Amino acid sequence: MNEQVRRAIASYTTYQEAERAVDHLSDHGFPVERVAIIGQNVRLVEQVTGRMGHGGAGLQDAASGALSGVLLG
Asked: What is the pLDDT of residues 22-69, one digit of tens each?
């Protein structure tokens, strides 16, 4: 079994601070494809797959909202 080992490299108080840190790394050429933002008392693990433009982010948000609407509706 090929189990991935996760290692914390930084800790932030808010998700927004962690997101800014990942953006900073990406802006400076760090390969963020294997970076994960993991919250305390984990309810969500977000796997970063690379840098996303405004259009891609908008489409992803729209798809996420549609999925939520279907599940709740």
From this structure: 999 999 999 998 888 887 776 667 778 777 777 767 777 776 666 556
Q: Using an 8 Å Cβ cutoff, are 36 and 6 in contact? A: yes
Q: At a CB cut-off of 8 Å and minimum separation 6, what does 59 contact? A: none
Residue 64: which residues within 8 A CB-CB, separation 6 or more?
A: none
Cα–Cα distance, 52 to 47 (Å, whole number): 13
53 token code pair: 């433009």
pTM of the model: 0.51
Cα–Cα–Cα angle for 11, 50, 70, rounded to 5 degrees:
90
Q: What distance separates the 2 farthest-apart alpha carbons in the chain? A: 42
Q: What is the DSSP letter of 66?
A: H
Structure token digits, residue 10: 């930084």
DSSP letter assigned to residue 5: P
